[in-house]
């Protein structure tokens, strides 16, 4: 299966996506997701100028060898741009191998370990009535677990609140599904950690009183707290039995999680900004986290994330793969195949893509009674409609950023 063509396709139906399409001499094609939200063209350049020339004439069946070659031969390793580019190649080669075998990728990874993947959705509201309505809407859509994000009094616009879209950009697009706003400069949002910490426990008390003790609830701190602030929040949320507290402090400082863990039994999830097993290794070994939040798209593909999760299984740490709408349907399909096959699956983040995106990327996965399944179509189960993709050219977009009340730039 010799590769004789590799194309990088950029399309922006509901948001920007970067897709690698590899074609073999015998006509097999494979797709890979290389989307890096807000920095898409950096990955496009890496693929087009540096990776694609290396693929032409190589054997598409050599997935592991190709991965090691792309990772090691560059010398300058790791980082989101490099690993997103390698991930696209890895996914596309698994897609081709599945098609050559006439089997879905999860069968090649060892077969299904479960019937489906429990997923969580994103409920949010500026105030409690709006939040309650959002939770009920997600339950009606079949979600069995729900992430809760809430507005904070005195703050105009913060991460994860769907209804604030009209305040910060295009009101026709749900803000939590696409916080990156199209334009020449990023949108500025505001932040006050003290106000957030004082407000949030009361929100979860109200949610538990309204929806009872059995609904799994999650929350994303989005890297905005110091370790001691995160420890306080985790402890104060213990009465409300969270499924997890995500990204409670900036992930770059792995020692920070040790302090948080010492002060709370609230389960911790982290890693959506990680790129290799080396970012997770000590956190897993030292039992400082409960869920691996890595994304197939940003961790170098199916091959290395499978290895990371197998390592995590030794320590009873489970998967919680990143799955917002800046992971394209190709990347989501890859996550579903991997999640279905591993033993230590925990939960899958799932945000529904917009109608335009679903026309560009034709998908075979199913969503039934709160569970995802990638389907049994050979390969990853996603086809790219090039005619539809061509209708939506790239548009410059940036994720927002935060400033504190005194004007200091802060983690978003």
Automatic annotation (TrEMBL):
GO annotation terms (biological process): amino acid catabolic process; carbohydrate catabolic process
Residue span(s) of domain Mandelate racemase/muconate lactonizing enzyme C-terminal: 128-267
GO terms for MF: magnesium ion binding; mannonate dehydratase activity
Top-level taxon of the source organism: Bacteria
PANTHER family, alphabetized: D-GALACTONATE DEHYDRATASE-RELATED, STARVATION-SENSING PROTEIN RSPA
NCBIfam families, alphabetized: ManoateDhtManD, PRK15072.1
Name of this chain's protein: D-galactonate dehydratase family protein
Species: Agromyces seonyuensis
